[in-house]
Write a structure and sequence with these properties.
This protein has about 350 residues and is of the alpha+beta class. The protein is built from five helices and 19 strands. The strands form three sheets. A twelve-stranded antiparallel beta sheet has the order 6-7-8-9-5-4-13-14-18-17-16-15, with helices on both faces. Strands 1-2-3-19 form a four-stranded antiparallel beta sheet. It has a three-stranded antiparallel beta sheet with strand order 10-12-11. Strand 15 and strand 16 form a beta hairpin. The longest helix is centred in the first third of the chain and has 17 residues. It is globular and about 60 Å long. The two termini are about 35 Å apart.
């Protein structure tokens, strides 16, 4: 379900009043032998690099550039970065922190509020640099506050950002601290070095806590020679989806109702496809409009209610038309590599 799929399906859902929730609504990265393996798919041979994310991993050809990866764990947004090598960590942390406070002071205050920052403190629970600030992050409401916490985790700096009721300031802080305590980094591209546990993988580390709520993972990759854009989205779901409301059913509805006016849809693949033990649906289409022709690849798993190990999963890839056989081979190799990470270390 790529750009056109999303556009058609969102409109179709609006017309039919469906209530289904869709996933749609480095410098410094080390190339380790453990993370790279060769595959031969059809007529192509390529090296693949594995990326853990959420409670799964996926491998892509090494020529693909990872352009973004983001995580939301237990309602807490997690952003990671690599410190500059040989930098004084304490000084670097202070610069990052002071810049962040400066940006907060530029925000608009809610009506009736004198100061944006409600509380600012060093977090004494950790040996390394850790600072926290609690402030009004939304000028529309003076009843909600934001905790932003910066923690030094070795080669990685970690921002944890959590929003909630102003009256729950200390409970919110303790919630985030529990996540930090469970966070670990591991040697580059070697997640199996972690002990057994209930790991949720971020860009540079992992959190050893079971699923509770609000787990969201997104990552994007780009391959310039073929202009391929790959995206992976995972999101916990709280709904049960009817069998005919999946990816295949929605695309069929778009075609049969003629809702995709001005767009010719040629189905290349439209089938059930199981990957990583998850029974999902695959749709590969050629979309032709006045703006040109593109190839849209999509695989979707509807997910199980309130499950971290079986969330709603959407993997998409799109590009201009052309080189279909090569792109199908790349697509198949990527899907076949998708696997759960929760078995690692057990």
């Amino acid at each position: 379900m790529t750009r056109n799929h999303r556009r058609f399906q969102v409109s179709f859902l609006a017309l039919t009043c469906c209530s289904i929730i869709l996933l749609a609504c480095h410098s410094g990265e080390t190339k380790e032998k453990e993370a790279i393996y060769s595959i031969k798919k059809g007529g192509i041979k390529t090296n693949m690099r594995t990326y853990p994310m959420g409670r799964f991993s996926i491998s892509v050809p090494i020529e693909f550039e990872r352009t973004s990866q983001s995580h939301r764990f237990r309602g807490c947004n997690i952003e990671e970065f690599l410190w500059h090598q040989n930098s004084n960590r304490e000084q670097a942390g202070k610069r990052v922190w002071d810049n962040h406070l400066s940006e907060i002071h530029k925000l608009r205050k809610p009506d009736g509020v004198d100061k944006l920052i409600i509380d600012s403190r060093k977090i004494s629970n950790f040996k390394s640099f850790a600072e926290g600030v609690f402030y009004y992050g939304n000028y529309i409401s003076a009843r909600r506050g934001n905790w932003d916490i910066l923690v030094d985790k070795g080669q990685t700096g970690v921002w944890l950002k959590y929003r909630g009721d102003l009256k729950a300031k200390e409970e919110m802080l303790n919630w985030v601290i529990d996540i930090v305590k469970a966070y670990r980094t591991y040697p580059p591209n070697n997640p199996s070095s972690l002990p057994s546990g209930n790991w949720y993988y971020t860009k540079y580390g992992a959190i050893n806590l079971p699923f509770f709520e609000q787990e969201q993972t997104e990552a994007s990759f780009y391959y310039r020679p073929l202009d391929l854009k790959l995206k992976i989205e995972m999101n916990d779901t709280h709904t049960e989806e009817a069998p005919d409301e999946g990816l295949i059913g929605r695309t069929t509805a778009v075609i049969t109702t003629g809702y995709a006016a001005g767009v010719d849809i040629e189905r290349i693949r439209s089938r059930k496809r199981e990957i990583a033990g998850l029974k999902g649906e695959e749709e590969v289409d050629r979309m032709t409009s006045k703006d040109g022709t593109e190839l849209d690849f999509g695989w979707r798993y509807a997910g199980e209610k309130n499950s971290g190990e079986r969330p709603e999963i959407l993997i998409t890839m799109d590009s201009p038309d052309g080189n279909l056989d090569e792109k199908l081979q790349i697509w198949d190799a990527i899907l076949d590599s998708f696997k759960p990470m929760y078995k690692i270390g057990k």
